[in-house]
Write a structure and sequence with these properties.
The protein contains 4 helices and 16 strands. By secondary structure, the chain is an alpha+beta fold.
Length: about 450
């Protein structure tokens, strides 16, 4: 045995290496701490040949090797065959997918049917077929066009003429009034027809000053005097509207409409004014009485939106926001009587106007019993007037007409009016009243 020992040791080591080669060596750890990874290609009793990962070969002496780590040979991974699905299983899967698809389609169809049913209920509740009458009374303010216009004309006469008169009334252009509105409203599903008429009347005391001048200024017969104005005035403002409305999307709670119609306005002011002053040094009696009347009719159209909101079963909020476009003539006539009995004069204005502006109405109603309800309504209309054309007329007796004033009478006011004041026609009010509805 002692003789065979030197031969057995290398033989056993070789067998051990060959056995491990079948396991595919992976890592060789050297005594110096270095590691070499790869595949062992060959070996003998003195060295080991390894093919490194990068493809290079390296021969290592067994005397420097501390340890060889072999990895198990990885089993060849074969493609796993998917289990075969039977025809019955395929049929069951197809039936399951069809059932899920059918369920989704049923849910979508059911949602559409519910939405359609809800919309039909809305349309049913939104259907309207009734006639409603209402009457309201209240107070407010109004302003006609020609009173400030007439005052400006007189200033123009003083600036450009050698003689004449001008006055300044201290009472404001806006006057208080008492008013009433009658309204008929017919509704048929999406369409509505409204006829509305408003009349406002007011009174105010005329006060102010009047300046009178006569002569050339260098003549000894010329005179200038200032009189006190005393008098009273009555105003009337009438407005009639015919409007048609259409609801694009009916809804039982909130109704939104497109509204358009025809508008007519008539304003009238009558004044009795006494001008009182002392007799001048030249013997002129300045005392006089004037009877004045102004008329200003307008016609045009309106377009805008309307709404009606019902809430808490009892209350309703309605309103309209409208744009107005109108035009028409104005007429002023003054008959003046001198207290000395020497003269009687007439003068007048005839002009054309273009008027645009807005009208806003808000109405709050509450049911009292059945179809009877009470309301409070606020309204404001403001028109901005633009002077288009016109002429000042005079009749002071035969031979007293001044041909040099023709251009002034025709064009002077058109230049001066925008400078002196902002021309407006205004009607605003707050009313309370009652509604009664006849359902068909």
């Amino acid at each position: 045995m002692k003789k065979l020992a030197p031969f057995l040791t290398p033989l056993l080591f070789s067998v051990f290496l060959i056995f491990n080669l079948s396991l595919l060596s992976e890592t060789i750890l050297l005594k110096s701490g270095e590691k070499w990874e790869g595949s062992i290609l060959a070996q003998d009793k003195d060295s080991v040949t390894i093919k490194l990962v990068d493809g290079n070969r390296k021969v290592l002496s067994k005397s420097v090797i501390q340890k060889i780590s072999f990895g198990k040979k990885s089993e060849s991974t074969s493609l796993k065959k998917e289990p075969q699905v039977s025809e019955d299983q395929k049929k069951i899967q197809e039936e399951k997918l069809f059932a899920e698809k059918q369920k989704q389609e049923d849910e979508i169809r059911k949602a559409k049917e519910e939405q359609q049913k809800k919309r039909e209920e809305q349309l049913s509740y939104a259907k309207r077929h009734y006639l409603e009458g209402s009457l309201g009374v209240g107070s407010g303010e109004s302003q006609a066009e020609l009173r400030p216009f007439f005052q400006t004309i007189q200033y123009a006469g003083l600036i450009f003429g050698s003689g004449g008169q001008a006055e300044l009334q201290s009472n404001p252009y806006k006057s208080k009034n008492h008013n009433g509105t009658a309204r008929l409203f017919y509704a048929w599903d999406r369409f509505t027809l409204e006829i509305r008429g408003t009349e406002a009347k007011g009174n105010f005391d005329v006060s102010g000053f009047q300046t009178l001048s006569s002569g050339s200024g260098n003549n000894s017969s010329s005179s200038i005097t200032t009189n006190t104005l005393l008098g009273n005035s009555e105003t009337k403002f009438q407005k009639v509207s015919s409007r048609i409305g259409f609801t694009p999307y009916p809804h039982p709670v909130f109704d939104f409409q497109i509204v358009g119609g025809v508008e007519r306005i008539w304003t009238k002011t009558t004044q009795k004014v006494d001008s009182v002053g002392e007799i001048t040094a030249t013997g002129m009696n300045p005392n006089r009485t004037s009877f004045r009347e102004t008329n200003h009719p307008l016609k045009g159209y309106s377009i805008g939106i309307g709404y009606e909101w019902k809430f808490l079963e009892r209350f309703t909020l309605q309103g309209q926001i409208l744009h107005l476009d109108m035009q028409g003539p104005s007429s002023f006539r003054s008959n003046e009587f001198r207290m000395d009995g020497s003269r009687y004069s007439q003068n007048g204005l005839d002009y054309q106007w273009k008027s645009t502006g807005t009208e806003v109405n808000v109405k709050f109603s509450t049911k009292i019993k059945g179809d009877f309800s009470l309301f409070i309504e606020a309204s404001n209309m403001t028109l901005n007037n633009k002077l288009k054309s016109g002429y000042i007329t005079e009749n002071e007796g035969e031979g007293n007409s001044d041909p040099s004033q023709i251009l002034l009478k025709s064009y002077g006011p058109q230049i001066l009016i925008p400078i002196f004041y902002d021309s407006k026609t205004i009607l605003s009010y707050v009313q309370v009243g009652a509604n009664y509805r006849f359902n068909f």
